[in-house]
Amino acid sequence: MEDRRLEAHIADRPEFDPPGQVWDFLVTGIIGFACIPFISGNVVLLCNRKYRPIKSKNVNLTVLSSLGGLIWVGSTIVVNGHWRRDRNSIWASCSLWTFWLQTCFGFCLWLNCMNVHLLVLYYIFILKKAAGGMKSNMIRLAGLLLPIIVFCICASAKHVSRIIRNGGVICVFQFLLYLVTTQTQAKDQVVGRSFLSLSISSAVFYYFWARNGGVIYNVIFHKEEYAQKFIADLQRCPSERDSREIFPSSFRDLETELKEAREVINRYHNQIEQLEEEVCTMEQKVSDLQQQVELNCSQAIKESEMSKYLN
């Protein structure tokens, strides 16, 4: 009864635009049409997941992120109220669509798949370690999703959505609840809810095509040539040892190389000092030899003069 009075109050507000307007159908149609190539691109990635250029993109995380993006976009369309929903149907379940689908298995799944992929790249290129397989990635993803799952359980149990609509009370996760409250206020007007839906769908679709559009195009139209070019680029890349010597991968490597360079400089400096000491010793020996030669020459001259005088 309380929910019905609240919905009637919202519907009677002059600033509230009822669902089912031209903008609602237009935005829903645009998003639905954009989903067709989006889903087709993911199917291409799955069907060619053993293709060398695609295999390097971690297809499992990419497709799982796309699934989360689709759930996020679909639940956003439902939550924003682009069409009328039956109060007694599953479409009117606020906790299901707002917390579980839109927040947890939508936005957070989409975002955390990207975070896990970045973590894999960090392991490979920075730490120079094996990042693990699909099982390791799923464990990392589950760890990132665990806080938001706990949040959704608490929010559903405490009927946080009703509290937000009535009073704007800030609960455990203040930031997430603020986002939900802001979106609830913005979607009252048709322009606001249309902008929200288009913005979210654009973020999901743009990231996918910016990262995978080139390889999907080439695998469809230039599959063999692109694979050969990809392998040739890999062969032209410097080895791990050369790349570490030319481009240190971290400040720790740079400090190690700087320390080694200083040790080499000190070693050469000590060698130079030893050579200078040896040069001084040799100069002293040469001076002594010169004096000895001069002394011997003077004695020889005296002996020669004495022999001439005696004769």
From TrEMBL:
It comes from the Eukaryota. Residues 251-292 form a coiled coil. Keywords: Coiled coil, Membrane, Transmembrane, Transmembrane helix. The chain crosses the membrane at residues 25-47, 59-79, 99-126, 138-157, 163-181, 190-209. Signal peptide: none annotated. The keyword Membrane applies. The keyword Membrane applies. This is Uncharacterized protein. It comes from Picea sitchensis (Sitka spruce).
